[in-house]
Amino acid sequence: MKAILFVGHGTRVPEGNEQVKAFTKKAGAAFPEYEQRTCFLELAEPDIVTSAVECIENGADTLAVVPVLLLSAGHIKKDIPEELEKVQQMHPEVTIQYGSPFGVHDRINDLLLDRLRVKGWVPEEEADILFVGRGAKDPGAIEDFYRIAGELEKHTGRSRVETAFLAAAEPGFQEKMKELAEGERSVYILPYLMFLGLLIKEMDEAAAHYNQVKPGHFTRCDFLGFDERLLPVLESRVAETLEKDAGIHV
Question: What is the pTM of this model?
Fold first, then answer.
């Protein structure tokens, strides 16, 4: 029997974890024949090992592990595989199929543009769009982030796309905010984050700080979140994982 194990990042904000569960439940509805669990890498429960063992104890002999993450960085290449290796050592008889994150996808680009439009942005506006990523030490993840930013800028008309990271990469978010606060163009902060968490709070606090001096200068757009348009992306990642060869490789 195969089971699908969705792996979210996890956050100290309970609402964010509930959003992950709601999202995976909706995507998982396309695969009703498989037992399913949603777990978290850190900061929330259940963890990967606990959920995997539950599936195995319920009769699963194959685990299709699907990361609910945006880019292939350290969590994908190191942290999740380390947890899965623990499961494999505990249950060497079980087959583990390890999937891919969302990655670069046209649907995500369309959704980012929609997040801007909802806040009043139009292509004719001469604004700055601050595209903000979580950040990573992995060069491949940073390269993918810039690819997405480049595709975004092809559709932003007279607006200019700037980039920043919240951790582990440069330029830093706070540094870029300070720089853009000195300009005259309105700024739309566009988070490249999947779910609600403390990083969104950091953006809101920074925007509120600078808006005290220049009211309305910064507008924070919504994160990607639970959106129907992303469901086919996750469903495709599940289908790919179910067809993968056994092994915890990326």
Answer: 0.89
